[in-house]
């Protein structure tokens, strides 16, 4: 039996997560399927920023470093984020950018592997998010010590690329373009058995799919707070260092926030115990504070419930696109198998860029990634089943009517 | 003839910068002499943050990366900041933290010096801001290649410490504790003559004293926007790379924001031409945007006028403290000579911590740094001559009455 719009409305009426949409402000007339790039704005964010700017900065001034807990915020927010990725308290800090945190993790992993002189390779995927590759290349090249980055083309060939020469296996858990999810447990076990350390990028996982860093045996992880976690544009990222590695976590960005006694103003660096040694310099407090507004929403639910709805939304989207737009040259890129799917669905179309521009003009906001890929992110916190129906209706109209401009110039694509 | 409070009021009445105080919100009853640690809040900052959060993030969502200029902000703000430090357009970006930027500059300088295998030393002062030393130690130690950090105890002995073994001379232009200003031109010339590259930290200079990076022959510089530039707590820092070094600026934090074609999603890093290669990852947009509110105020005046008032304020403070509190054991730490003074005045007192706590309780906000140093920062944008008089009046009362608690526990001092 074919799904109807009323079926979607009925599912929304029974959806226990539906009330959470009220926690977010979205512009009227928009179906926002790009939370995998920039999460929507929690309503609480503006009030929180106002409090920080007007009261904590404007009125309380310098004493807010202590009285408003500014210094403690990277660890406090890290502790709140930890359960979403299967980490423990005292193992996560929210700080710096994903790239800078990746550098810390890679640098610390290479440092741990120094006793094994033959381990000079960082293995990753050619289809990894490019900046992850760039950071590894930058580190390897600048070190000029024989380190190299090995790019694997086929996700199923990763194991074959990890061997006695491998220092680090660096992977993004859910691919930004295809939405394909790696089996963290199996890959981490394989790497560990072969003597390689794993560094996981959770940019498209944290808040999107259940992550179990400890259970799955990861070594290090970093991630982003401004996608599925709704922390705000460019909000500080996070880094996870499990307790078993913290004492040996040596990374060169050794700023005063990572010092055992930052206000003693000693001239010798002595790293603090614990996750604090992943900190470096003073953080952008207003942007950092708003991360908590996103985390507050997650506190009202759990990743199991979010995952169930995410899979239902992406299943529905795939079903509706294939039944309603089946005559058009669309290719499903994202795995159908639940265990291998993140919280997005990607389809190719020969005119993918133009079709996405037409969708955006009609209020269905997804995005486009070379080559030919239209990305649709499904954030169960604020996306309804009726949204999915309506988005596919508009996609079908555009495709049936060929209502897209294949000559449109490609601007900077975000 | 002794200065009176009326004299101070008369100077305020004639002060062309006095109206700029209206650009800032300061709590009533407070004399804020800690702008060298956290600048006061420009009134415009809250409206700007609200615009970014409500409109650009909440309503325009992902497209704001282009339409609101988020991607371009590090360079655009860098161009606005450049004239304050004697830099040219296209040479400064506002990004990341001061520590991370210092790492980029040090790493790039060491890379430039690699052909000179004997140059393995980073020279700096033991009294430099500790995190600068930590970053150099972290880089040198983690590289494990024979690099070392040489700490100079006497500021006048710096030249003697720079020689054939020196790769980099890394100095903070104005010392955070003493307020002493280095002669950038003389020191840079000395270093250049000896084959060393200079890296200058302008944390206590940018917006505080005239800086002429090009004229004075500096090689690299970094600085802070949340002190004298009033960008907000932890606002992103800046880095300056002059055009002559940009093509050879190789630093390992090679993220996608520094790529020649960030959206081509190529797997090989190809650094962009120009200052963009000092960028790495996605920036905290709300905190970054507020930096402009501080820069807007500077656009209404110039560093020569600010410097004249800064010296008049610090001269007056020294004069009044010495005449009105002369019987107390206060020691002037900051140089009397104008050319060697920043925009702060530091005095030692055997009970400096307790006296500073008493001052803060009475609304005179300075801060304390070990050992025994009371710091008073003078920001000519929002500090009046009457403020100076009133602050000294309160200091005199506290000292004359011994109205301070020498047993007070020392908490975390910011």
UniProtKB/TrEMBL annotation, chains A, B:
Reaction equations catalysed: L-kynurenine + H2O = anthranilate + L-alanine + H(+); 3-hydroxy-L-kynurenine + H2O = 3-hydroxyanthranilate + L-alanine + H(+)
EC number: 3.7.1.3
Catalytic class of the enzyme: hydrolase
A Gene Ontology cellular-component term: cytoplasm
Pathway(s) per entry: Amino-acid degradation; L-kynurenine degradation; L-alanine and anthranilate from L-kynurenine: step 1/1; Cofactor biosynthesis; NAD(+) biosynthesis; quinolinate from L-kynurenine: step 2/3
Origin superkingdom: Bacteria
UniProtKB keywords: Hydrolase, Pyridine nucleotide biosynthesis, Pyridoxal phosphate
The keyword Oxidoreductase is annotated on this UniProt entry: no
Residues bound to pyridoxal 5'-phosphate: 98-99, 129-132, 172, 201, 204, 226, 256, 282
GO molecular function, one term: pyridoxal phosphate binding
HAMAP family, per the entry: Kynureninase
Role summary: Catalyzes the cleavage of L-kynurenine (L-Kyn) and L-3-hydroxykynurenine (L-3OHKyn) into anthranilic acid (AA) and 3-hydroxyanthranilic acid (3-OHAA), respectively.
Protein name, UniProt field: Kynureninase
Species this protein is from: Pseudoduganella armeniaca
UniProt gene name: kynU
């Amino acid at each position: 039996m074919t799904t109807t719009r009323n079926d979607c409305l009925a599912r929304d009426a029974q959806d226990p997560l539906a009330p959470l949409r009220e926690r977010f402000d979205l512009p009227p007339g928009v179906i926002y399927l790009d939370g995998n790039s920039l999460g929507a704005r929690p309503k609480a964010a503006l009030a929180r920023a106002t409090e920080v700017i007007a009261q904590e900065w404007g009125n309380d001034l310098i004493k807010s470093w202590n009285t408003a807990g500014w210094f403690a915020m990277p660890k406090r927010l890290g502790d709140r984020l930890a359960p979403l990725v299967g980490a423990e308290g005292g193992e996560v800090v929210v700080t710096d950018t994903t790239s800078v945190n990746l550098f810390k993790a890679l640098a610390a992993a290479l440092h741990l592997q120094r006793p094994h002189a033959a381990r000079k390779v960082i293995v990753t995927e050619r289809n990894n998010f490019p900046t992850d590759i760039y950071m590894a290349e930058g580190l390897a090249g600048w070190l000029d010590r024989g380190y190299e980055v090995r790019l694997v083309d086929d996700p199923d060939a990763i194991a074959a690329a990890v061997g006695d020469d491998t220092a680090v296996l660096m992977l993004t858990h859910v691919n930004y373009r295809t939405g394909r999810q790696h089996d963290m447990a199996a890959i981490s076990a394989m790497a560990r058995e072969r003597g390689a350390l794993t560094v996981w990028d959770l940019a498209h996982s944290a808040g999107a799919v259940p992550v179990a860093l400890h259970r799955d045996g990861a070594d290090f992880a970093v991630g982003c707070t401004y996608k599925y976690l709704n922390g705000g544009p460019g909000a500080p990222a996070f880094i996870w260092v499990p307790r078993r590695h913290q004492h040996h976590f040596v990374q060169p960005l050794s700023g005063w926030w990572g010092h055992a006694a930052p206000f003693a103003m000693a001239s010798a660096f002595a790293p603090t115990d614990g996750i604090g040694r992943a900190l470096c310099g003073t953080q952008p407090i207003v942007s950092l504070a708003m991360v908590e507004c996103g985390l507050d929403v997650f506190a009202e639910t759990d990743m199991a419930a979010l995952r169930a709805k995410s899979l239902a939304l992406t299943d529905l989207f795939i079903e509706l696109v294939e039944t309603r737009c089946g005559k058009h040259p669309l290719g499903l890129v994202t795995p159908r198998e639940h265990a291998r799917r993140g919280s997005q669905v990607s389809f190719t179309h020969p005119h993918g860029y133009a079709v996405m521009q037409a969708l955006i003009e009609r209020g269905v906001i997804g995005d486009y990634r070379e080559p030919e890929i239209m990305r649709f992110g499904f954030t169960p916190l604020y996306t309804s089943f009726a949204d999915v129906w309506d988005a596919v209706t508009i996609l079908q109209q555009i495709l049936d009517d060929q209502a897209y401009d294949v000559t449109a110039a490609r601007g900077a694509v975000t």
